[in-house]
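User:
I study polymers; will you set down one protein's sequence and backbone structure tokens?

Assistant:
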Amino acid sequence: MSRRLPKRARYERETVYQILDEGLVCHVGFVVGGQPFVIPTGYGRAGDTFYLHGSRASRMLKALREGVEVCVTVTLLDALVLALALAEASAKVRTGPPIDDEDDYELPHWAGLLPLLTTTGDPVPDPRQRAGIDTPEYLRDYRRGRHGEEGSVSESEVG
């Protein structure tokens, strides 16, 4: 089984911010009383501040207030990699084309990426909201930045 190579990961602040800004759900991992927990939750970012969604009474936020160590993971699945060798097939998270062994390029099989897209639809107003309130421009024009759209991470940036 292949492993992700450290040289393929990206740690630059702007790349991390772009991933955070595009994602919607994170997984927060922590341990309380010897029991590990991983909680999916919504999040947001403003500048250098990362916000987690949750109830003040939740186990997660109580534990974080008490100072437990935490791991936050945001995953954007961009494509399925269809490599020549089955052991090299994978799902790609912000990376480029498959990297096959040189001998595999002689195989009579197609290889490449099957992009996976997350898109937004048109805003749908609450039917009970007060009449005469228009959809704000920032929502009318909102688009998730992927695959060459403004604000997305380009293939050359991710290798």
Residues 21 and 79 are 19 Å apart (CA to CA). The chain has four helices and seven strands. The two ends are 21 Å apart (CA to CA). Residues 13-22 form the longest helix (10 residues).
